[in-house]
Amino acid sequence: MFTNDMVECKQDEIVMQGMDPSALEALINFAYNGHIAIDQQNVQALLIGASFLQLQNVKDACCTFLQERLHPKNCLGVRQFAETMMCTGLYDAANSFVHQHFVEVSVSEEFLSLRPEEVLELVGCDELNVKAEEQVFEAILAWVRHQREERESCLPELLSKTRLPLCRPQFLADRVQQDELVRCCHKCRDLVDEAKDYHLMPERRPHLPAFKTRQRCCTSIAGLIYAVGGLNSAGDSLNVVEVFDPIGNCWERCQPMSTARSRVGVAVVNGLLYAIGGYDGTSRLSTVEVYNPETDTWTKVASMNSQRSAMGTVVVDGHIYVCGGYDGKSSLSSVECYSPETDRWTIVTEMSASRSAAGVTVFEGRIFVSGGHDGLQIFNTVSERPHHIVSPFSKAKACFLCEVCLYFCTGAMRLR
């Protein structure tokens, strides 16, 4: 401004717009002595002045100050301020904080004061940390009711971003369907009917938009790893369950299962951990028990139709599928599906071959069962459900885990 051919270099007095006088004085002093005091009262003014004067180290210090003091009551405001000041790191940190603490944020004054387009963007986000979709619904209703006359017209679009099919049927019937705002809106009632059809008519599920049945997953929150059952060095099946916290870098014992299980299938649905079948040291099991991490308790649920260990286990659309396995006499080709809502196991289309210790995964809504063995040979083929055979491996392989330690593997599952 002063050393180039700009108009200010010839003026005796220059007016600097948008600068807080005390912040400017602090920044000038910093230029001479290298020290500046940042507090709750001056941090925003200092960040604005530091951006204007291109004092990057002061700007970074202000961003760090704000980031360390993020709270459910201020994170939305900090995020908006960071976006205005083009502070990418602070914006990302505040945005991640909003996702991680969505339930607490949703009852704050900042949330209730958001513009409609901001609420739409937020509730449509995959990474909201919620235990159940019901919490997103309650947040939307609270926002609409805060200024009902102005916001009631936004409810259908907001509900369309909510994953109503993931709500419990009882909640849909007793809470959503009965709400006055929903009942008064034809479009909202259609969305509720769509969600109810998801539970009543599974064959229509593929026709729903994919995001409506996709569980939200807050990737910025570290999960927990559960090791379920297995064998000890003496070859005895265990009922021991341990959980690993990657942040604390430690293992802790959980409540043990009621039954010892090795070569057990494990799955996570709606925050609950299922231990399925396995081998107790005497026989293969058809029994199933489920662990609730909030209460540290195991509960027995419906047993499978067949005894099986070393089976493949996956979750598709909130249902558990077990593929193949060993029943104590031979490898199995049968596949069973468990519905947590009805607590029932159903036999579905079997695989083209009997497989134990196969690798199983889900891709684009289809189950792929790869490799494994039938007790006589190790396969290089792959089965797909719906029933289909895809190209084989170049080399015969069992499951990536069980090929190495078929008789010593434990069930492990990441549980959010």
Provide an overview of this structure.
- This protein has helices at 21-33, 43-52, 56-68, 75-84, 88-100, 102-105, 109-112, 116-123, 134-146, 148-151, 155-161, 169-176, 180-183, 186-200, 402-405, and strands spanning 224-228, 241-245, 250-253, 265-269, 272-276, 288-292, 297-301, 312-316, 319-323, 335-339, 344-348, 359-363, 366-370, 382-385, 388-390, 411-415.
- It is α+β, with helices and mostly antiparallel strands and 416 residues long.
- It is elongated, with a radius of gyration of 28 Å.
- The model is unreliable at 387-391 and 393-416 (pLDDT under 50).
- It has a 4-stranded antiparallel β-sheet with strand order 3-2-1-16, with no helix packed on it.
- The chain folds into 3 domains: 7-104, Potassium Channel Kv1.1, Chain A, CATH 3.30.710.10; 105-213, Serine Threonine Protein Phosphatase 5, Tetratricopeptide repeat; 230-415, Kelch-type beta propeller (Neuraminidase).
Compact description:
This is BTB domain-containing protein. The chain is α+β, with helices and mostly antiparallel strands and 416 residues long.
Number of helices: 15
- Largest sheet properties: 4 strands, antiparallel
What spatial form do the alpha-carbon principal axes imply? elongated
- In the CATH hierarchy, what is the architecture of the largest domain at level 2? 6 Propeller
Which spans have pLDDT < 50 for at least 5 consecutive residues? 387-391, 393-416
Q: Which class of the largest domain in CATH terms?
A: Mainly Beta
Strand content: 15-25%
Distance from first to last alpha carbon: 54 Å
The CATH homologous superfamily name of the largest domain equals Kelch-type beta propeller
Radius of gyration: 28 Å
> What structural category do the secondary elements indicate?
alpha+beta
